[in-house]
Every structure is written in C-alpha cells, then in structure tokens.
Design goal:
Elements: H1 2-18, H2 22-33, H3 39-45, H4 55-88, H5 105-119, E1 123-124, E2 130-131, H6 133-136, E3 162-163, H7 168-177, E4 182-191, E5 203-213, H8 218-233, E6 239-246, E7 249-258, E8 275-284, H9 286-291, E9 300-307, H10 308-316, H11 329-332
Parallel strand pairs: 1-4
Antiparallel strand pairs: 2-3, 4-5, 5-9, 6-7, 7-8, 8-9
Helix pairs in contact: 1-2, 1-4, 2-4, 5-10
The structure holds ligand 2U9.
Ligand 2U9 binds next to helix 7, strand 5, strand 8 and strand 9.
C-alpha cells in the first residue's frame, strides 16, 4: 500500500509541476481528490478491504497525501496567478494618453460669434443651402441685370436652383413668415464662383444678422457692431465705419478694425494702412422691405454680414484660408 501511495504522490506532483493552465489544475484535483472518483477518495472508500488493524495507518497515510497534494495545487495556482499578472500589466509603464478631439477653429469662432449676439438678444436661425434665384437675388434688390450679381455668382443646379452665395435668403424667408420685431443671426455655408487663393475659397461660412423694428437707427447698428468687435477682439480695438455700397442696404458701411498685429501703426498684414476690414453692414433697403410686404414707413432695420473664416484668420493671425479645409492635424491641433 505504501508503494502505491508513493506512486500516486510522485505522479500527482509531476502532473502539477507540468500543468500550465487553471483548467489542467482543476482536472488534476478531480482526478486525485474528486469526491466520487478521485484516486485517493477511492482508497478511503475501499477501507473495508484492509484488515481492521491496518485501517488507521492507511487512513492516516492517505489523508497526509491528500493534504500534500492540496497544498501543492494551491501553491501552483498562486504561482500561475502571479505570472499572469506579471505578463499582462507592466504597472511601471507610463499611461496611454487618450486622443482628445476638438472643435474645428471655424466652429470655435462661430460659437464665439453666436455667444456674443445671443447675449444681445438675437436668435440663431438656419436655412437651406440650395436656393432659388428669387431668394438669393431678386428679393435682395438684385434683378438679373444688376452688376452686383457678378460678385455673388454661384454654382447652378440643372433644375434652376443654385447654391446660395450668402445666407441673406434666410432673412427674407423669416420676414415673409413673421412680423417685426426681428432680431436674428444666420450662420451657415455659402458658395461663390471664386478662384482659390490665400483669401478665397468657393465654399465659406457666413454669419449675417438682421434687426427690424419701429425706429431702428444707424446708431443701433453702430452700437451693436462696436460691442461685437470689442467682445471678439478686445476693448482696445478701434472701430471705423466706412461708407460703402450693397444692393440690399442703404446707407451701407464697411466696418474696419485697428490692425490686430501692429495695433494701427501700419504693417505687412494691413498693407501699411493700420486698418483691417472685417464686416459689411447697412440699413435694410426699403425695396427689400417692400418685397416681403413690410411697410418701410413703419419699420426700419439694420443688417450685417461677415465671413467666419476671415474673422478667424484675423483673430489668430492665419494667413491662408486653405488651411481650414486641408485637414492637416499639425494646423488643427493648435486650436
Ligand atoms: C436682408 C437684408 C440685408 C446683409 C449684409 C453685408 C452687408 C456684407 C459681406 C461680408 C463679407 C459678405 O461674407 S462676405 O463676403 N456681407 O457686407 N451683408 S449687409 O444684408 C442683408 C441681408 C438680408 C434681408
């Protein structure tokens, strides 16, 4: 009997030593110690085959071996557990930096513009990018023969529609549906037949604004846009309103700010002038009001328009509009 137990001891130890997986350990445990068919259990169950005076000794030897195998199994499991941990995680390695996304600089600039005008009580409205000639031109006092159409020339679809060249058609649509007072800004993509160069791209973003009510004056326009410039570029920025022409506003003015680079002294960016043009504006032309059924004697309004790319370029000193559309992460990661 002693020999047989010794054989079992050697074979169990050998098997445990060679085992590589938890499943194998479990199989060995069942094979030797299993409650029904375990090799040692079976010896204990067959105790009646031994002469009575031998039984206590056999029982003692079997139990000792059982304990030994149990301890061996436990040790092996602990050893394997350690190896698994050591292999899978090296806690001394530096952590992996998660790649965080960010908003495109144009989106960031647009959010900032929206924040300023929302603070002044303007509502944000959006509209279709595919428009009719009526909304893109006629309703804005630009009949088919008007030379100003040239500057706003766009891409035409086969069915007579076109890609809007400004967001102004949205303001016309709002006025058709709603009576004054109106205070809206309209952000969105616009399209023009412009040759690509550092300051032109056939698709760009605009924010246009419109305020209509009784007794709106040019002073309201100046106050509103001066506040915008100070919020966007800082309180020290100077603002200048320069007479201009747009078919849909009368009188009209372009808005310049003191150069963000040289602060007005004159440099390469402002071509030595000390001023940079940032937006266009004016009092809504009575002809436009007539088109949407507003009485120009009763209501007045001011309107303005700006290119988001241009505002962003001036704010951050970017010298080429194409950088916004090339998806070069070396550029985009800076914002
Ligand atoms: C309605 C009435 C009037 C919107 C205006 C401008 C002046 C303007 C340019 C800025 C740079 C276009 O993106 S840009 O090239 N815009 O100068 N826009 S007033 O006037 C309107 C709009 C809608 C019904």
């Amino acid at each position: 009997m002693k020999q047989e137990l010794e054989k079992l001891r050697v074979s169990a130890k050998e098997r445990i030593k060679k085992a590589n997986t938890k499943e194998e350990i479990e199989r060995i445990k069942i094979e030797f110690l299993g409650r029904r068919q375990g090799k040692l259990t079976r010896i204990l169950k067959n105790m009646k085959n031994f002469p009575p005076h031998k039984r206590p000794e056999v029982g003692k030897l079997v139990n000792e071996l059982k304990q030994e195998i149990q301890e061996e199994l436990k040790r092996k499991i602990e050893e394997m557990g350690k190896e698994v941990v050591e292999e899978s995680v090296d806690i001394t390695l530096p952590g992996r930096k998660p790649l965080l996304g960010r908003l495109h600089p144009i989106t960031q600039t647009l959010e900032e513009i929206k924040r300023i005008f929302i603070g002044l009580g303007f509502q944000v409205v959006r509209g279709p990018e595919i428009e009719t000639e009526y909304y893109n031109f006629e309703a804005l006092n630009m009949p088919w023969h008007h030379p100003a159409r040239d500057e706003y020339d766009s891409f035409y679809l086969d069915n007579g529609y076109l890609l809007r060249s400004h967001t102004s058609p949205v303001q016309v649509r709002v006025m058709e549906k709603k009576s004054p007072p109106i205070r809206i800004i309209v952000p969105g993509r616009c399209y023009r037949r412009d040759a690509i160069d550092p300051s032109h791209f056939p698709m760009f973003h605009q924010v246009e604004g419109l305020a209509v009510d009784k007794r709106i004056t040019f002073s309201d326009l100046k106050g509103c846009l001066t506040y915008f410039v100070h919020q966007m570029f800082g309180k020290d920025t100077k603002v200048r309103f320069r007479p201009s022409f747009f078919p849909f506003t009368e009188p009209s003015a372009e808005v310049d700010i003191s150069c963000v680079i040289c602060k007005g002294k004159g440099c390469r960016v402002c071509s030595g002038k000390g001023w940079l043009e940032i937006l266009g504006s004016g009092m809504v032309d009575p002809e436009v009001f007539k088109k949407v059924g507003y009485d120009p004697e009763k209501y007045q309004g001011f309107a303005f328009g700006m290119g988001v790319e241009r505002i962003c370029m001036l704010k951050y000193g970017i010298d080429d509009i194409r950088l916004f559309f090339q998806n070069d992460l070396r550029f985009l990661r800076q914002f």
